[in-house]
């Protein structure tokens, strides 16, 4: 089955700087890679996703890059703000209604 | 956007009783929903895949008779924790996939279950 590794487990960034979180996956058949933000006591919120037919996707301060050959994808947050502090999870899936396999999460702290 | 509503958001129950958690997709139909369990400071652990009109598919190690899942309509799935014990205390989260063939998955707000 699919295995997703995520690094780092914790990340502290000065407000205004950029944050990068990286994930690798094992199943080359996976073709859908979402990123979720989870705040304390709440369910995960989809913030951006990418499909295997593109290498990069951007939405304002958030971007995701995908390297299918190396089987890794990354989340980039620029101009970080205190409200970006949360736990971020990457995931991989075969798409359709197949299940998501999650990474272990990254606790991001933005230092004012 | 897509909204998934989960109810209740928290519940406290006595050992030996059963608890039902509802998961609804409010503005879209979901033929497939997923139930997760999350321990503090850990990732989401998939418990089962809930398919509308058919039996749920459970992950290895998850007790089918303890965690009953029903997906009676395209907008509602329920998880019933039967004969709950303190070790069942956890954060339970559902998700539903939206769109043709699914893909985008949206999550409910989670249910904090405490068994005393």
Written overview of the protein:
The complex is a heterodimer of chains A (112) and B (116). In chain A, 0% of the residues lie in helices and 54% in strands. Chain A has no helices and eleven strands. Chain A has strands at 4-7, 10-14, 19-25, 32-38, 45-51, 56-59, 62-67, 72-77, 86-92, 101-102, 106-111. In chain A, strand 7 (62-67) and strand 8 (72-77) form a beta hairpin. With 116 residues, chain B is an all-beta fold. Helix content of chain B is 0%, strand content 54%. Chain B contains no helices and eleven strands. Chain B has strands at residues 4-7, 10-13, 19-25, 32-38, 44-51, 57-58, 67-73, 76-81, 90-98, 104-107, 111-115. In chain B, the strands form two sheets. In chain B, strands 2, 4, 5, 6, 9, 10 and 11 form a seven-stranded mixed beta sheet that branches. A four-stranded antiparallel beta sheet of chain B has the order 1-3-8-7, with no helix packed on it. The model of chain B has no long low-confidence stretch (mean pLDDT 92). Chain A binds chain B through residues 32, 34, 36, 41-46, 49, 51, 89, 93, 95-100, 102-105, and chain B through 4, 6, 31-32, 34, 42-44, 46, 49, 93, 95, 97, 101-110, 112.
Please render the helix and strand layout as text:
The complex is a heterodimer of chains A (112) and B (116).
Chain A: E1 4-7, E2 10-14, E3 19-25, E4 32-38, E5 45-51, E6 56-59, E7 62-67, E8 72-77, E9 86-92, E10 101-102, E11 106-111
Parallel strand pairs in A: 2-11
Antiparallel strand pairs in A: 1-3, 3-8, 4-5, 4-9, 6-7, 7-8, 9-10, 9-11
Chain B: E1 4-7, E2 10-13, E3 19-25, E4 32-38, E5 44-51, E6 57-58, E7 67-73, E8 76-81, E9 90-98, E10 104-107, E11 111-115
Parallel strand pairs in B: 2-11
Antiparallel strand pairs in B: 1-3, 3-8, 4-5, 4-9, 5-6, 7-8, 9-10, 9-11
Q: Which structural traits does this protein have?
A:
heterodimer, A: 112 residues, mainly beta, six-stranded mixed β-sheet, five-stranded antiparallel β-sheet, 0% helix, globular, B: 116 residues, seven-stranded mixed β-sheet, four-stranded antiparallel β-sheet
